[in-house]
Amino acid sequence: MVSERFPNLETITIYPKTPNFSREGVACCRVYCPPMEFPLLPWKDPDSGKLLFPCGKFVGTWTYVELRKAMELGVRVEQVFNCIEYDSMPSPFVEYMSYLYNRRKEVKDSDELMSYTLKICMNSLFGKWGEEGEMQVISRGKRHTLSQVPKHSNQIWSSYILAYGRLKLYSYMMEAKEKGTLCYVDTDSIFVRCKEKPLGDGNKELGTLSRKGCYRYAHFKLPKLYRVDDKYKAKGVPKSRNKEDPEELKREFFYDGVAEFLKPYRWMESKKLKEQANVWHTVTKQLSAQYDKRNTFPDGHTTPLTVGV
């Protein structure tokens, strides 16, 4: 995605009378998404605050690259309220990301600290461009809030990075769907029930998916809460300290909806709670959420929600 086209910030057009979707930019508009198995455009529910991918009529702000793809799929842009446009330019990130990625491959097996540092540099690129103020900073033991937008902030580029990531994942979903049944999709993973490898063996190159395994049993409850064979994924729940059964805590949380474990106060957390950093304390995590991002049926299949009609 870092090699795709990006907006040229020196060619900005603010609020043009008629949007030109062949350029780059962002638009606030009302769209109609016809019935389809996997809608493309994300929409934030104003009542729950949850990010959904619905069918129907709804208003949101999307990048032009997402809107172009959505219109290819049959989505209709009914009204544009405002937009900002730019000419297109080559990605400004190719040289930087290529250097970090290739350098990390060189040191991954010999220098763990440098490998981790390079990984953080790559992962933080999107977030640094997307900073928009209200940033929490701790300096000399005191907590401060920076309310102004940082000078380095460039949210249009950050929006495009996020959009390209979603489009890449969507292309993998459509490819895998031809081979079997999509069971679970997250920001960086796809689980497919099929008789053959849906995406081949994959690879570990930048911007691609690698094949992690083949499982005989899978049970998906919520985002980041699932079981594959005898392994459990439960975000926020650590592995058990019982070396003979490291999945114990995650398994308890998966089936019982509650887990109790020890964890240390992190630095930022300690300042907020006025506790001592790195002191271990008991945490009880309870499951209260229910899956409500799609319609669910007793046989396990799901369909998109419909809004606005």
Quick synopsis:
By secondary structure, the chain is of the alpha+beta class. The chain has helices at 64-72, 94-107, 112-129, 155-177, 248-256, 267-273, and strands spanning 5-14, 24-33, 43-44, 51-52, 55-63, 76-90, 135-139, 142-146, 180-186, 189-194, 198-201, 218-222, 225-228, 231-234, 258-264, 280-286, 294-296, 302-304, 306-307.
Question: Which features characterize this protein?
Answer:
309 residues; 36% strand; single chain; five-stranded mixed β-sheet; 6 helices; alpha+beta
What does this structure look like?
This protein is an alpha+beta fold. The radius of gyration is 22 Å and the shape is globular. The two termini are 34 Å apart. The strands form 7 sheets. A 5-stranded mixed sheet has the order 1-6-2-5-19. It is built from 6 helices and 19 strands. Helix 2 runs antiparallel to helix 3 and helix 3 crosses helix 4. Among the domains are: 86 residues; 62 residues, no CATH class. The mean pLDDT is 88.
State the distance separating the first and last CA atoms: 34 Å
Strand content: 35-45%
Please give the order of strands in the largest beta sheet. 1-6-2-5-19
Strand pairing plus helix content: what structural class? alpha+beta
Helix count, per DSSP?
6
Mean pLDDT: 88
Question: What is the number of E strands?
Answer: 19
Q: In angstroms, what is the radius of gyration?
A: 22 Å
Annotate the secondary structure layout.
Elements: E1 5-14, E2 24-33, E3 43-44, E4 51-52, E5 55-63, H1 64-72, E6 76-90, H2 94-107, H3 112-129, E7 135-139, E8 142-146, H4 155-177, E9 180-186, E10 189-194, E11 198-201, E12 218-222, E13 225-228, E14 231-234, H5 248-256, E15 258-264, H6 267-273, E16 280-286, E17 294-296, E18 302-304, E19 306-307
Parallel strand pairs: 5-19
Antiparallel strand pairs: 1-6, 2-5, 2-6, 3-4, 7-8, 9-10, 12-13, 13-14, 15-16, 17-18
Helix pairs in contact: 2-3, 3-4
